[in-house]
């Protein structure tokens, strides 16, 4: 039995609330159980200097945790004067994940900046951020098309992410902190709606894990992302109604 009493293939309660920031072109408050991330998508009519005159746009991300997102207060990274290696790795992952499903030429010479701020952390903050970031980005593109800025939708597919792990020798989906902190193996899967792999991060924490265990983790990730894709579509449809 999992601490949360969920079945091995059961996600936490997931919500995707759009339009939570009145100023951003797109926004989403994503919750995976007690993990909550506020995501905003801001569009700039310019690209980084190294991309000028290429006819292509860019999508990038920033990630951070608020001081009291965890059990004890963490110091703001701005106060420390530098970002941690973990923060840099996660925001690069978010950016890569979104660019994998965007036609940068269709975007034109514009930059989309995705800000992911963790309000509360209970495991799976990076996967929640990616899942919510796609919704915020899609909302921003819908807004730009309504305003006549974009002729076509630059998004070519959905992307979502979920964690899986081996907990008490059992492969399970969507680890919360209690499971993540004691799991024998931990992994994050980033998948597209077409079933393509964007990235897999898998680590043996207390022991190595077998190929059958990995195959089961992958299967669980496909199940979980399938549910997340449906929730993403529903969140966008709710805005249009």
Q: What does this molecule look like?
A:
This protein is an alpha+beta fold. The protein has one domain (14-239): Ribosomal Protein S5, domain 2, CATH 3.30.230. It has 6 helices and 9 strands; from the N terminus they run ββββαααβαββαββα. It has helices at residues 77-80, 85-99, 104-107, 125-146, 177-180, 211-240, and strands at residues 14-18, 26-32, 35-44, 58-65, 111-120, 159-167, 170-173, 185-192, 197-204. Strands 1-2-3-5-4 form a 5-stranded mixed sheet. It has a 4-stranded antiparallel sheet with strand order 7-6-8-9, sandwiched between helices. Strand 8 and strand 9 form a beta hairpin. The longest helix has 30 residues, at 211-240.
Q: In CATH, what is the class?
A: Alpha Beta
Strand content: 25-35%
Question: Total number of helical segments?
Answer: 6
Helix content: 25-40%
Helix-strand pattern, N to C?
EEEEHHHEHEEHEEH
Return Rg in Å: 18 Å
* Average pLDDT score: 95
Query: How many domains make up the coordinates?
Result: 1
Alpha-beta content class: alpha+beta
Which fold does the CATH topology refer to? Ribosomal Protein S5, domain 2
- The CATH superfamily label reads GHMP Kinase, N-terminal domain
């Amino acid at each position: 039995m999992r601490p949360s009493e969920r079945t091995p293939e059961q996600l936490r309660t997931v919500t995707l609330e759009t339009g939570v920031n009145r100023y951003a072109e797109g926004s989403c408050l994503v919750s995976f159980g007690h993990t909550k991330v506020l995501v905003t998508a801001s569009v700039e009519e310019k690209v980084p200097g190294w991309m000028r005159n290429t006819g292509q746009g860019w999508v990038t991300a920033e990630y951070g945790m608020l001081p009291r997102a965890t059990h004890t207060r963490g110091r703001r990274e701005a106060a420390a004067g530098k970002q941690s290696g973990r923060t840099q790795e996660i925001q690069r992952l978010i950016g890569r994940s979104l660019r994998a499903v965007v036609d940068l030429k269709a975007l034109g010479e514009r930059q989309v900046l995705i800000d992911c701020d963790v309000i509360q952390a209970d495991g799976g903050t990076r996967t929640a951020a990616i899942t919510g970031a796609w919704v915020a980005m899609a909302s921003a593109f819908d807004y730009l098309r309504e305003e006549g800025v974009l002729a076509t939708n630059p998004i070519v597919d959905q992307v979502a992410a979920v964690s899986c792990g081996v907990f008490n020798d059992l492969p399970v989906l969507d680890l919360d902190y209690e499971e993540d902190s004691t799991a024998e193996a931990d992994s994050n899967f980033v998948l597209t709606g077409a079933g393509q792999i964007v990235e897999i991060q898998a680590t043996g924490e207390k022991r190595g894990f077998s190929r059958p265990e990995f195959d089961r983790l992958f299967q669980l990730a496909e199940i979980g992302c399938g549910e997340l894709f449906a929730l993403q579509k529903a969140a966008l449809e709710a805005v249009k109604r």
